[in-house]
Amino acid sequence: MFSLSEENYLKAIFHLETAYKSGVSTNALAEEMQTKASSVTDMIKRLSDKDLVNYKRYQGVKLSEAGKDAAIEVIRKHRLWEVFLVEKLGFNWDEVHEVAEQLEHIKSEKLTNELDKFLEYPKRDPHGDPIPDAKGNFAVANRVLLSELKKGEIGICVGVKDSSAEFLQYLDKNNISLGKEIEVKEKEDFDQSMLIKMDGKELRISNQISANLYIKTT
Amino acid sequence: MFSLSEENYLKAIFHLETAYKSGVSTNALAEEMQTKASSVTDMIKRLSDKDLVNYKRYQGVKLSEAGKDAAIEVIRKHRLWEVFLVEKLGFNWDEVHEVAEQLEHIKSEKLTNELDKFLEYPKRDPHGDPIPDAKGNFAVANRVLLSELKKGEIGICVGVKDSSAEFLQYLDKNNISLGKEIEVKEKEDFDQSMLIKMDGKELRISNQISANLYIKTT
DNA sequence: AAATTAATTTAGGCTAATCTAAAAAATTGA
DNA sequence: TCAATTTTTTAGATTAGCCTAAATTAATTT
């Protein structure tokens, strides 16, 4: 069994590995974990002793198979609890993160699997992220950022890259939610801002917005 | 906010206070917490520094108002989660304790209150124990132990004193559950064992059983 | 290729929560 | 009452997880 802190590190490494294919640097991990590089080195040693990561001094860190399994299990629980909070308890999608950060560490295989069943085996969490199944299998995300679409292209909003409360509240305020069809009417060369059409109305959004919205093109 | 360990101590003191009205002794608390007396002394000092307990050396410990409030909040969460596990996720009443021990430490007032609402404000947990409401008010238990009934008396089973998996499994095996009507047909002077009638059938039970079953007499 | 800068690790401390062993205080009982 | 026993506290270690400051290694410039 892993400690709360170990689980958080494993999760962070997992998320960073997509960006740092050749190994996650100590500094990147320190940034992600909001801690000091020296603390990261300490923890990496502990995780390495438990064979959850592969580590050579000054070379960055990668999850082992066991580490990956553990990370995916935590992510599975996090996302299932998010679905529970929104679907069953009426939380808004910008209110679930902090609570799910706690709930993801509850240890009970039966609990996780019964929760999954109770929620009818959801495939995605409220932010559109895929939920691993009991075997750790992910749905592969076949999506692009809205910022990558060209003028005239159309797609469905399927997820958010940034799930901070601030960003989600901006989306709520502008009625942007998962499932909405979005058409790129104009795209500014200078700052990448866009004029989009949604619900029959036009809306101008900055690149900061479009670069955090996942779209499935139709 | 309190640490996991602090919350567990507060809860233990709360439970022991009913038996030790004049203050909970260090040894009793060590026994309850499955730890050493010296560790208890350490923690009592910490709780005392935070004004969660009143403590004078060698005199046992009592919860302050703040300590009592904190303990009741933890107990409220524990029992609500037990209801959730049984009612919504299909756990048996002998499987919920360990998981609820973890869930009771999740910090989110909104979560607790929305869970309470989702469960339709249950008054009792699966073992018949009262659930404090959001203000910390308990239903007062108006019940006696089955072992206190005399021959010929009748009552309804409303709770268990021991909620260990072993005891609950014994009850399951003998079809004893909350809500059942029980009549004392015979009571043995020598060992206090009883012959009881339930569901039209007779069953002989030892004092260890009858002293752990709460009854509401009709 | 040497020098500077940046990243990483080591060394040494700190705190919460635990432990063992010893000391001190309270209780019991002859 | 006072000696023996029990209970409780103190003293001193230990571990996980974090910190700061210093040292080391790697990367980048010139």
From TrEMBL, chains A, B:
Q: Which SUPFAM superfamilies match?
A: Iron-dependent repressor protein, dimerization domain, Winged helix' DNA-binding domain
Q: Which residues form the HTH dtxR-type domain?
A: 1-64
> Which cellular component, as a GO term, is one annotated location?
cytoplasm
Location comes to: Cytoplasm
Under the heading PROSITE patterns, the entry gives:
HTH_DTXR
Role this protein plays: In the presence of manganese, represses expression of mntH and mntS. Up-regulates expression of mntP.
Family per similarity comment: Belongs to the DtxR/MntR family.
* Assembly description: Homodimer.
The protein's name in its UniProt record: Transcriptional regulator MntR
The lineage, from the top, is: Bacteria, Pseudomonadati, Bacteroidota, Flavobacteriia, Flavobacteriales
